[in-house]
Amino acid sequence: MGPYVLRRVLMAIPVLLGTTFVIYLAVYTLPGDPIQALAGPNQVISPSVAQALRERFHLDQPLVVQYGLYLRGLLVGDLGTSFTGRPVAEIIAASWPVTAQLGGTAWIMMAVAGVALGVVAAVRRGAADAAVLFGTTLALGVPFFVVAYVTQIVFGVQLGWLPVSGVEAGWPLAYILPGLVLALSGLPQVARLTRTSVLDGLAADHVETAVAKGLTGAAVLLRHVVRNSLIPVASLLGVSLGYLLGGTVLVEGIFNLPGLGYQIYTAIPQHDGPVVVGIGTMLVLVFLSVNLLVDLLYGVLDPRIRLG
To answer: Where are the transmembrane segments (predicted)?
Structure first.
C-alpha cells in the first residue's frame, strides 16, 4: 500500500504546479493596473508610492520570478498578502466555513436525490424511468445561473419560503437554495450512473440465484444490488465533492454568500491577484486531496488497482 500511496502523491505534485501556474498566469496577465485599482478609479497615486507598492508585491519582477517567489512562500505555508494588506490565509480562514457548509449541503442533496432517482429509474421501468431521464437531461441543458435566478424569484420573492441572499438565517435555511442550484450541476450524472449500475446489478447471475432461493425483491435489491452498485457511484460522489467546492464562485456571488467563491468574485474586478491565486491554490489542494482519498479508497476496495 505504501508504494501506491507514494505514486499517487508524486502524481499530484505536477498537477498542483501546473494548475497553480495557470491560475497565476491568468490572474497576473489580466488587463489593468492592480495598484490603480487598489486606489480607486478617481484617485491619483504618486509615482513614488506606486513604485513602492510594486516593489512590495514584486510586481516589478518578471512573471516567472513572481511565481517562484509565490511557490517559495507556499512551501512554508504563506499564501501571500492581499493588496489591502490582509493575509490571504486570514481571508480563507474567515470564509472557508461558508463554502464548506454550502458544498456539504449541495453534496448531501446530490448524493441522496441522485442515488434515489437512479434506483427508482432502474427498478420502475416505464413512466418513472422516462421521467428521471427527461428530468436529468433538462437539468443538464439549463444553465445553472438561470436556475439560480428562477429559484430566487419563485421560492424567495413570490412564495417567501427561503432567503435569497446572505447567511443571516443560518444553516440550513440560508443554504437550501444555493445548495440546490449547486447540487443540480452533478445530480444528473449521479442519477444516471446509479441507474446504469443498478441495471447491471439486476442482470447479474448472483442476483438471479438469490431470487431463486426465495429472497424477496426488497432484500435482493438492498443486499445484492444496491450495495455492489454504489461502488462506482461512491467514486463519482467523492470526486464531485472537490468540483462542488470549486464551483461555488458564481453561486456564492449570485446568493451573496461570504465564502471563498465570493472572495474571488469580488477580488477579480479589483485586480487583487494574491487573493485569487491564494484561494485558487487552496481549492486545488482540496480537490487533489479528495481525489487522493478516492484513489486510496479504490485501492482498498480493489487490490488489483494497487498493483497496476
So the answer is: 9-30, 104-123, 130-157, 169-187, 230-255, 275-301
pTM: 0.80
List the chain domain ranges. 93-262
Greatest distance between any 2 Cα atoms in the chain: 86
DSSP 251-280: HHHHHT--SHHHHHHHHTTTT-HHHHHHHH
Assess whether pLDDT exceeds 90 at residue 78: no
The C-alpha atoms of residue 184 and residue 164 are separated, in whole angstroms, by 17
Q: What is the pLDDT of residues 83-137, one digit of tens each?
A: 888 899 999 999 999 998 998 999 999 999 998 998 888 888 788 889 998 998 8
Query: How many CB atoms lie under 10 A from the CB of residue 103?
Result: 28
Q: Under DSSP, is residue 284 helix (H, G, I), strand (E, B) or coil? A: helix
Give me the residue label for grid cell 467563491.
261
Cα gap 16→11, rounded to integer Å: 9
CATH superfamily of the domain spanning 93-262: MetI-like (1.10.3720.10)
Distance CA 179, CA 216 (A): 37
Phi, psi of 178, rounded to the nearest 5 degrees: -65, -35
247-286 residue pLDDT tens: 777 888 889 899 988 888 888 877 888 898 899 888 888 8
Q: Of 38, 26, 20, nearest to 79 (Cα)? A: 20
pLDDT at 300: 61
d(CA 117, CA 68): 48
C-beta separation of 256 from 168 below 8 A: no
Nearest to 149 by CA among 177, 183, 187: 177
Q: pLDDT per residue over 39-51, tens digit each?
A: 666 667 777 877 8
